[in-house]
Amino acid sequence: MCGIYLTNIPFTKDEVKSKLKTIQFRGPDYMGIQKQSDLTFGHLRLAILDLNVRSNQPMQFEDLVIVFNGEIYNFHELRNDLISLGYSFSTTGDTEVLLKGYKEWGAALVSKLNGMFAFAIYDSTSRKVFCSRDRLGVKPFYYSWIDGQFEICSQLRPISHNKQINEEAISMYLDCGYIPSPYSIYQNVYKLPPGNNLEIDLTEQKYEIKEYWNLKKVKDTDLSYEEAKEKVHDLLKEAVKIRLESDVPFGTFLSGGIDSALVSSIAAKISKNPIRTFSIGFDDAKYDESKAAANYAKIIGSDHTETICKPTDVLEMIPKLIAVYDEPFGDSSALPSLLLNKVTKQSVTMALSGDGGDESFFGYNHFRLVTYASKVTLVPRLLRKLASKMLVLNILGRRNQSCKGILNVGSKYDFIAGIFVGFDSLLKKRDFKWLSHYKGYQTWSENLLQATADLNIKLWLENDSNAKVDRASMAYSVEVRSPFLDYNIIEFARTLPVAFRYEKGNRKRILKDILKDYIPEEVFDLPKKGFAVPLDGWIRNELRKDFEENLTDDFLHLVPNLNIKKFKSMFRQHLDGEYDYSSHIWRLYVLSRWYQEFGFYTRKTAKERVLVYTS
């Protein structure tokens, strides 16, 4: 787990060193900078495999040079294949395997890889740079290209840019809570989409992006339920096993959920010694899963560490969130994620997580909501519009006005999209042209639940969940590995009949039946709480002053396409306890802090500011 950098801009080594220092948390063990022809390579290493200096990067073999971030879990198999072809190895890690694998197979290498990765390989003979990002977008990859000059990096901050904000990206962020690939917060800086290669021809001064993997239409397996359960179990055991290889101490993240309990249980069975488990809890019982996690830990025999997250902990983590996420990031669960990794780093450097299980096995609350979509869209739209003006519904146990948007949706696929981009908006004008990048989700499956899961994987997983985990873990130099993100599991799960995963509201049916082999059902069969924070109450109480000081008129007028009048009304109603608009308020708050961090806005003094809630 590391940070990579590559450019053909003629920076000095000291300039590149200064750039890398801004993200040195990604790799505190070694900083490598190397000039090769008119290119400069930079690498920050977090040593996990082969801790010897021989595995430092940039690494060179004949006419190839590589900078690589991530882990190749099947590198032993690939190494043996290369040895049989006459290659020899001087390290015991995966970087050398990746480098020599490219020498042998070229671009065909990436289809052989099982891992999380983002890398760039320069071939001095052909004067070409080959880059690739893993199938699910676990590892980040930013690049800029202006008139033949380029930069590539694991994070946005080191990339030189003219600091021109992409106003369209701000609108995307206010709708989604993140900025989806291929866009970034800045003009002329992009994210390489998952499952894609980026090939740069230095002689011709051009680049090309080519897809090597994506979701596709599949047919349901003809396996029986019991056979499918056994297959899923075997795939999970293998995915956990290959992710346990490490030359540093490891542990697992353990919440009260099915996924982390299953990953931790399998890891405990495989490990020769008791594993370390880590969890975060809250004083608010509605959000706290720490007691369930403690029960799981006792049953599987792990050495368990529990940390309770208080509002003061959140305040302390906000500057860290703004500093390490680079772009505005509106998922408030990033805060406990940061705290969890901070605690974890005191004991281990690598941890397994349960991320990815909800996408493939229908775990999120919105899968219950989408089952109503076909019923809602059967009602003539005119009648639904009339109803939306008269009704305020209680959606998923939370009082809000999203029902107006829900009742106004056009097709059932609009309903699915609304789950991810919101049924209610802070924008003056919404434009979903950017969603065309994800339009395939409508054709991958005719089943609404599977179509929702596919969009979860292609849109939310990469841009929210994976970004959250990567930045939160890297902020404290922790490597997180997620067995459920093994592409073999993703692909096989999509062949399972929906009823195997979701039956009459029973989400994750097949995973629950597997977990029974490790933990009694009465212990784990609990309502899903998710990894959320009690933000709605905190905004009204403990964090209220900080929000009021940052969400001022002078800031709001800087935000393009923002419906200021609507936001002021929502903020006032939230503070008065009428509705829960915490997600919208949090996004604006984070954006304000981001504007300040990156020099786009300077907050006025207390005497000068105008508080929006009084306007």
From TrEMBL:
Output this protein's name.
Answer: asparagine synthase (glutamine-hydrolyzing)
Q: Where exactly is the site Important for beta-aspartyl-AMP intermediate formation?
A: D355
Q: Does the keyword NAD apply?
A: no
Q: Which gene encodes it?
A: asnB
Q: Which InterPro entries match?
A: Asn_synth_AEB, Asn_synthase, ASN_synthetase/amidase, AsnB_N, GATase_2_dom, Ntn_hydrolases_N, Rossmann-like_a/b/a_fold
Q: Which SUPFAM superfamilies match?
A: Adenine nucleotide alpha hydrolases-like, N-terminal nucleophile aminohydrolases (Ntn hydrolases)
Keyword Cell membrane in the entry? The reply is: no
**Enzyme class at the top of the EC tree:** ligase
List the source organism.
Pedobacter hiemivivus
Record Pfam families: Asn_synthase, GATase_7
